[in-house]
């Protein structure tokens, strides 16, 4: 069997990955066999599934994912998840902490209505430079989402790969986005999600340090393992999902 990195490289060469991303149902079918030998979480572990855009045709699928996960364990807020990591809240089985990245209008039109209906909380990681641009949320939309009881974190200003930035540029992406959300929404922003999220490739230790210096209490990556009490909040592992995926494909990312 080829190691996963070699497969990933090969897929990239073929341009398949981006083509699959544009066709999430096909992507889900391609990923599903990888979930065959995995099972959904059954033992204590903290998972951070996250999504991006959820177009209306996937609203029912998102609901299905959430209901499937919730049957396995509670959906907790980012605050509650950090309390688990700090040992202030027990982890007696699987638990799930949901987030969404970038700043899609479908958050307003699809995601928030589904979450309110399902009584599931979530954190929205905003790329501040996109807010107000055509095809993205406005600050007024974000304020309404805040008023509905949801939390916001930062996802940089320009959605840049932090590892490509010099020290000043990276610091600006991390600190300016925080300040802008705080100014616009009047809430303290203490959670950060790195664009793309792969350590060494997309961000480095320097960026984790810069986030800490800027006043963040958590730093999210796209590494996938379950987390447990004692793990660092400055190295959150999240599992990227698409609602179009069958549960078998979810299992390839969210498993024991
Ligand atoms: Zn992103």
Describe the 3D structure:
This protein has 256 residues and is of the alpha/beta class. The protein has one domain: Alpha-Beta Barrel (TIM Barrel). Helix content is 43%, strand content 11%. The chain has 10 helices and 9 strands. The protein has helices spanning 4-14, 16-21, 24-35, 59-72, 78-86, 105-118, 139-147, 167-185, 205-214, 247-251, and strands spanning 45-47, 49-51, 94-96, 99-102, 123-126, 151-154, 191-193, 218-220, 239-240. The protein has a 5-stranded parallel beta sheet. Strands 1-3 form a two-stranded parallel ribbon. Helix 9 links the parallel strand 7 (191-193) and strand 8 (218-220). Helix 4 crosses helix 6 (105-118) and helix 8 runs parallel beside helix 9 (205-214). The longest helix has 19 residues, at 167-185. It starts with a helix and ends in a 5-residue tail after the last helix. The structure holds zinc ion. Residues 101-102, 155, 159, 195 line the site of zinc ion (ZN).
- Summing up helix and strand content along with how strands pair, one would put the structural category as alpha/beta
Largest sheet: 5 strands, parallel
Task: Name the beta content range.
Answer: 5-15%
Low-confidence stretches: none
Fraction of helical residues: 40-55%
CATH superfamily: Glycoside hydrolase/deacetylase
Number of domains: 1
> Judging from the principal axes of the Cα atoms, what is the shape?
globular
Organism: Actinoplanes teichomyceticus
Domain NodB homology: 94-256
Subcellular location: Secreted
InterPro entries: Glyco_hydro/deAcase_b/a-brl, NODB_dom, Polysacch_Deacetylase
């Amino acid at each position: 069997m080829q190691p996963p990195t070699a497969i990933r490289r090969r897929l990239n060469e073929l341009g398949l990955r981006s083509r699959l991303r544009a066709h999430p149902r096909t992507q889900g079918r391609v990923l599903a066999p990888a979930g065959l030998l995995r099972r959904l979480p059954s033992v204590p572990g903290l998972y951070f599934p996250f999504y991006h855009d959820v177009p209306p045709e996937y609203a029912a699928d998102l609901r299905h994912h959430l209901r499937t996960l919730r049957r396995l364990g509670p959906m907790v807020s980012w605050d509650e998840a950090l309390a688990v990591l700090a040992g202030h809240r027990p982890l007696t089985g699987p638990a799930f902490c949901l987030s969404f990245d970038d700043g899609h209008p479908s958050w307003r039109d699809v995601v928030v209505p589904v979450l309110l209906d399902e009584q599931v909380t979530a954190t929205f990681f905003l790329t501040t430079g996109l807010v107000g641009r055509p095809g993205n949320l406005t600050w007024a939309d974000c304020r309404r989402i805040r008023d509905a009881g949801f939390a916001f974190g930062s996802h940089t200003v320009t959605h840049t790969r932090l590892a490509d930035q010099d020290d000043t540029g990276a610091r600006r992406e991390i600190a300016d986005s925080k300040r802008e959300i705080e100014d616009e929404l009047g809430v303290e922003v203490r959670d950060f999600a790195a664009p793309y999220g792969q350590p060494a490739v997309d961000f480095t230790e320097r960026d984790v340090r810069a986030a800490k210096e800027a006043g963040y209490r958590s730093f999210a990556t796209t590494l996938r393992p379950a987390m447990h009490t004692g793990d660092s909040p400055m190295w959150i592992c999240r599992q990227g999902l698409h609602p179009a995926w069958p549960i078998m494909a979810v299992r390839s990312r969210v498993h024991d």
